[in-house]
Design a protein that fits this description.
Elements (H helix, E strand, L loop, with lengths): L2 H9 L3 H10 L1 H8 L9 H18 L8 H22 L4 H21 L5 H8 L3 H10 L9 E3 L6 E2 L10 H16 L3 H12 L4 H8 L3 H19 L2
Helix pairs in contact: 1-2, 3-4, 3-5, 4-5, 4-6, 6-8, 9-12, 11-12
Length: 238
């Protein structure tokens, strides 16, 4: 059975199919993890984080994409590891707390994909056999500003996050200026372009969904999206 068929079955709730895709891509995760050697972290820990990225790739991959799954998965895995390294560098926490946060993140992803909603604290407690106070501490430690890390473009297999459009500066005033500039650029788009931005980037809708809602073809949505991103890039000097 090929990878695409396994992914389709995984999306239908076939756990065995999902496990097979994960198993077949273990080598891919390790090849990416090795790029982050000598960063002061155990390779096994980074592998666990990378595996979360792999699972996200399986769950989010659209089989209509004209791209190999491995091409799509590489930036997802890499991005998950980079976010972990960035967030870990911002808040130093104990090893056990980091491990709990990783377990909770993985379970929340799995639960959300299965049931379309977030698990309750009690459900996490029952599944992971962790005390409630440790779960709350891990959730607080691992919290991210999700809106800044929404994938805003990925049809070519290379995700661009909203925060990537902002200058990476330690100066908070400069960061604020960049965020305001992004908002102004989006406001300068026409009504349909703004609608595509909202649906695609903030509501996490697929191009196919947007096409149906707007009464146009998926190809038209794809072309408009690329044009919008070029406008953003040109006006922001990205």
């Amino acid at each position: 059975m090929d990878t695409l068929e396994l992914i389709k079955r995984s999306k239908e709730g076939d756990k065995e199919a999902r496990d097979r895709v994960v198993a077949e891509n273990v080598g891919l995760v390790w090849s990416i993890v090795r790029r982050f050697a000598n960063r002061g972290y155990e390779m096994e820990d980074l592998f666990q984080i990378g595996s979360i990225g792999l699972i996200k790739a399986i769950d989010k991959f659209d089989c209509s994409y004209d791209v190999k799954f491995s091409t799509y998965a590489v930036p997802m895995i890499t991005g998950e590891i980079k976010r972990f390294l960035r967030d870990d560098g911002m808040i130093k926490v104990s090893r056990s707390l980091k491990e709990n946060a990783a377990k909770i993140r993985a379970y929340r992803e799995k639960y959300s994909n299965m049931y379309g909603k977030e698990p309750t604290i009690e459900e996490i407690e029952e599944e992971l056999k962790l005390p409630k106070d440790e779960i709350l501490m891990a959730l607080e430690t691992g919290a991210e500003v999700e809106s800044l890390y929404k994938t805003i473009y990925q049809s070519d297999g290379s995700p661009i996050y909203l925060i990537d459009k902002l200058a990476q500066s330690k100066d908070e005033s400069e960061n604020m200026i960049d965020k305001l500039a992004l908002r102004e650029v989006i406001a300068s788009l026409d009504e349909r372009e703004q609608e595509i931005i909202k649906l695609r980037y903030f509501n996490d809708r697929t191009q196919t969904d947007i096409a149906k809602e707007l009464g146009i073809s998926q190809v038209q949505v794809s072309r408009m999206e690329k044009r919008i991103l070029k406008i953003l890039k040109d006006k922001l000097g990205a």
